Amino acid sequence: MATKAYLVFMSFIGAFACSLPAAAIADPGTLGSAASFGVFGGGAGMTNQGIYTVINGDIGTTADTTLVTGYHDLNAVFTETPLNIGTVNGTIHTAVAPAGSVPNVIAAAAALDIQAAFESLSPAALPGGIDVSSLGGGAGELGNRTLAPGVYKSAPGTYAIQGGDLYLDGQGDPNAIFVFQMGTSLLVGGPGAAFPQSVILVNGAQAKNVFWQVGSAATINAAGGGTMVGTIIASSGISTSTAGNVDVVTLNGRALALHASVTLVNTTINVPGVTAVAVEPPVVVEPPVVVVPPVVVAPPVVVAPPVIPASSPITVTGTQAAHVTATATTGGFINVQNNGAYVTVTENGTGTINVVNNGQILTATNTGNGVVTIYNTCTAAVTVTNTGNGNITVNATGSLPITLTYTDGLDHFYP
Q1: Which end of the chain is more exposed for a tag (fewer CB within 10 A), N or C?
Q2: Vertex 99, ends 96 and 104: CA angle to 5°?
């Protein structure tokens, strides 16, 4: 390969700016298995930003699929989002993709062939490249030039296309070759970020015969827009446009990086000699979303007893000249201290009856759930009737009998 390329160069030297004859480097076959690749990200992967990126060819990396973001092909989707969708009208090759392929065989072979092509385009293989300053203008500036076929080497180590477009004149030869060698970087666009530039082919020049051998990184039209031509093989990374730009950058060629990633923003790449077949993203049928209502754990139902408003408590104390009649119909309590006349006490609620009687006849009736307690020291009769659930305790020191009536079945205490 090197000997043949050297002979090509020597024939060019003899004619200076005349067209180079067809040679191996003009044939995509020199890229071997990498000829169909529009993008290759070495072992670092590829990233797309924007929704207008289209690759008419294959893309690949020797890295895992996790380092491919924003792309899809006919087989799979690689970490796309609604704002980052890149269509690959070919196949995405990684260390494990496409599914069913032998792991990393295709990507690894492409990496070796790209490295070999990079070396075959180097000054070591094609020495004596033309310094464009010998044709007038700056040594590393390609903008506003029209160049004949040939091998061009950057004297300062960098090439830039700024301030105007670069025209490549095939001079009527469809096999005319253009090789650009630079020790470090390639910058297309400007001056400034707002001025995209283009490479324009005239008089039979073809994109498949244009090669850019970049010693470090290539940056293509950071402002978006413009058309780049040729196969870019960079030792480091390659980037097109800048995130947020919607003007599409067009590359009629390839972006092949050896040791770093390739980042594209709204870029169309047309691989020479590859017929594009439109690819729609695979339809991903997602299962229906079943909304499971949250489980509401109801607290235990506490059945509260009906609220019975309590009657105002009845308290009778002191010496009474008249009869004492105390009645509680709900939950009130009755306290009676009697030193006078008759005492009649009725409790129909849940309150308690406490009677201290030193007077006359005492009658206590309890139909509720309260407790009746009676202390009687008079000589009159004491009559107690209990039909509720409360206890009756009677202490009587009088001389007349005590009458007790109860139907509740509880214990009753009296002297």
Answers
A1: C
A2: 30
